[in-house]
């Protein structure tokens, strides 16, 4: 019953998008269970959450989208642990994207996936790049760590006087 309702909601949403932007052409990268999507009217893009992938499709050229170039892989972690609990390696223990939500001005997205029955979330830029976000965090902590090391050395030196 739930599968029928989900499928019907998906079809209704696709029909609403077709109404807004004209006819939409075909897009598929295989059986990846495309279930979650976010329409970004400002950037003329449709973000599609699937199994182990997040796709960014330009609304005016969906049929020209590349399965590799226009996607971000979100591979599951700890598949072995999931399989050991009796789940299917090729469906249940994959990372099915369930949430795509814009953050702030829409230049970033909050994305959440099932991650082999161990939910995981990401903050991803609209360009489908999350590396910049992680580099920012690394540099922030390195700077903070350097400051603490410098303070520790100074205290030890002063204490030795």
TrEMBL record:
Keyword Membrane: yes
GO BP, one annotated term: positive regulation of cell migration
Domain Sema, residue spans: 8-161
Record field: transmembrane: 122-142
InterPro entries: Semap_dom, Semap_dom_sf, Semaphorin, WD40/YVTN_repeat-like_dom_sf
Single annotated GO MF: semaphorin receptor binding
Keyword field: Differentiation, Membrane, Transmembrane, Transmembrane helix
GO cellular component: plasma membrane
Name the UniProt record assigns to this protein: Sema domain-containing protein
Protein's organism: Pediculus humanus subsp. corporis (Body louse)
């Amino acid at each position: 019953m739930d599968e029928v309702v989900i499928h019907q909601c998906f079809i209704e949403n696709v029909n609403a998008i077709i109404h807004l932007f004209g006819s939409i052409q075909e897009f598929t990268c295989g059986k990846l269970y495309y279930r979650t999507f976010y329409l970004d009217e400002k950037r003329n893009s449709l973000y599609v959450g699937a199994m182990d992938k997040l796709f960014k499709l330009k609304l005016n050229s969906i049929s020209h989208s590349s399965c590799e170039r226009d996607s971000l892989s979100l591979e599951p972690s700890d598949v072995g642990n999931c399989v050991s609990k009796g789940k299917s390696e090729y469906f249940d223990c994959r990372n099915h994207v369930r949430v795509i939500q814009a953050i702030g001005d829409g230049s970033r997205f909050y994305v959440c996936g099932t991650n082999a029955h161990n939910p995981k979330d990401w903050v991803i830029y609209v360009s489908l790049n999350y590396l910049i976000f992680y580099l920012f965090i690394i540099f922030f902590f390195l700077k903070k760590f350097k400051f603490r090391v410098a303070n520790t050395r100074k205290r030890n030196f002063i204490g030795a006087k």
